[in-house]
Amino acid sequence: MSQPQNHAQRSDLFLLDEERTTWHDETLWFVRQKRDRAVYATPEFQELRQLASDIKDHTLSRLAEYLEQFEDAALANGVRVHWAADAAEHNRIVLGIVRQAGASRVVKSKSMLTEECHLNPHLLAHGVEVIDSDLGERIIQLRDEAPSHVVLPAIHLKKEDVGETFWQHLGTEKGLTDPQQLTEAARQHLRAKFLAAEVAISGVNFAIAETGSVVVCTNEGNADLAIGLARVHIACMGMEKLLPRLSDLAVFTRLLTRSATGQPITTYTSHFTKPLPGRELHVVIVDNGRSQQLGRPDFRASLKCIRCGACMNTCPVYRRSGGHSYDFTIPGPIGAILSPNIDMRKHASLPFASTLCGSCTDVCPVKIDIHTQLYKWRQVLGAEGMLPASKKYSMKLLSRVLARPALFKAGGAAARLGLRFVPHALSHAPGYNPWAIARELPAPPKQSFRDWHAAQAATPAPTV
Amino acid sequence: MSTAREKMLAAVRASQPGALPLPTVPLFDGEASVEKFIALLESIGAQAIQLPHLSQLAATVARCYPNERRVASDLLPATVAVAATTPAATLATIDLAVLRGAFGVAENGSIWLPEAAMLHRALPTVAQHLAIVLDQHALVATMHQAYARLNGQPGGYGTFLAGPSKTADIEQSLVIGAHGARSLLVLLH
């Protein structure tokens, strides 16, 4: 098989293992159910969603001012602030800080931004050892894979896969599959890395303009342990992570983990404001397409995302196609509205990886209208001529038929008659009708709705 | 300063919409009882003990941790002295840290741990086990109340700590003790 080009083709690869697909689907739905229980136990949850949405809308509308306010406050705290217009500049800056520190050993906690910028390959190519310290991230780093979910990076793997990987790389017993023992092996392996690291890199969940703080949320404690030990901390943040006030964190910390995993809060919600004397805290603020997305009124709201992953857990397509089928740093519904901004042609199939059921929009803690944006991207892609030929011409044909009532009537009559005589193998032939690969056409009705309606009108309605 | 900075700010100014209002967030309140706080602690994998009196702290810790010999604390007689300058190699040998929390949040079982209470920034995560001493009258209901208490002053470093270190990265199986403390005991007085 040639390199899969679109979401549907990449999904086919995931779907080859039926048992695993079912497990993936059910496991993520279980996470969605945990989210529901946490949400229903919080009386003001819907009010909090609206507040979060409004705070983010406000912040984006004054983003330049808040960026400057954040920078001023951070500088006054002794933090060094760097600005990177794109991924290459971000990677150059981070490597420069590592080199200036005379360091060769780096540990990194979870950061979707550094994934987006492909920081690890850049550091490794320049002789810097970079170890991902989140357990799921470490597993996929050892396997040379990309994360398949923003919160659960190794959710595409089974414990047998992890056992195999640890046997190969960490020297654990072959066939070990107990999550407790596997986690303990990773703890021992990573302890040594934490103690030896000279530089700790982290992502940023929230940055506070008022105080110049960056806030990092983890369950494992890997960010705090690494940052607490290393002399230099580099925090990499997308420019949309800002919040105006420290107290705004109350709204967002209440929403984030309830939406993500159903926990009431992450184990560690850590506020980094000032470096200790003799130590360094660097914040790298990254654009990399964000200001462009901010300038698209229909898609601007996608920048409100707090990376909880709720839209992935609830999405009937994501759950059954896996994160890698999106071939973008952020998978799932939110990834499908962020990716065309980065490369419209490459990611043209992603806005179609949806039934437009709207479940993503319903669970989004910051009220991003995700399914509306998916629909709008389809219009943009159509106007830009980026629809696949099969979709483009079938839609053109359909619109011509639908615009001509007589043609529609004749077509319907022909189809009702024809489907009775066309052999199943032909009407469901994958070559002609990809829709029918996993579906059955309904039995053709005896009459059209129009004929039925005319017959009803001729018969007087019964009196009750 | 840098050209990237000017370029980015100009791009943002050109793209950002007209100013939208910043909402006032209500100071949502709720139950802040010891019972609720303890129930939340237990639901997130921590344990809680109510001390009749603070004078029983050392004896209680000794009873709960019979095998943990290397103890760092400023609240009871410690066996390892820890300060901001303590090297990582020493920190790595610590079995137990006993530290004072500033206040607890009943809605989620978290405890605000400011830098001043940590002895070393890495101590709460590098210690194998962690015990937090907390005044049971120092409880607030929600995160709104918690941030109101911080009053815009988060200090150089501080964390809302909610239970022991945990992960579910392997098949969504919950495992306590990922990289930070393997257990959390909260001693209320």
Automatic annotation (TrEMBL), chain A:
It comes from the Bacteria. GO terms for biological process: lactate metabolic process. InterPro entries: 4Fe4S_Fe-S-bd (IPR017896), 4Fe4S_Fe_S_CS (IPR017900), FTHF_cligase-like_sf (IPR024185), Helical_ferredxn (IPR009051), LUD_dom (IPR003741), LutB/LldF (IPR004452), LutB_C (IPR024569), NagB/RpiA_transferase-like (IPR037171). One of its GO terms (molecular function) is 4 iron, 4 sulfur cluster binding. Keywords: 4Fe-4S, Electron transport, Iron, Iron-sulfur, Metal-binding, Repeat, Transport. Residues 295-325 form the 4Fe-4S ferredoxin-type domain. Gene3D superfamilies: Alpha-helical ferredoxin, NagB/RpiA/CoA transferase-like. Pfam families: Fer4_8 (PF13183), LUD_dom (PF02589), LutB_C (PF11870). This is Lactate utilization protein. It comes from Hymenobacter nivis.
UniProtKB/TrEMBL annotation, chain B:
Residues 51-188 form the LUD domain. Pfam families: LUD_dom. InterPro entries: FTHF_cligase-like_sf, LUD_dom, NagB/RpiA_transferase-like. Signal peptide: none annotated. This is LUD domain-containing protein.
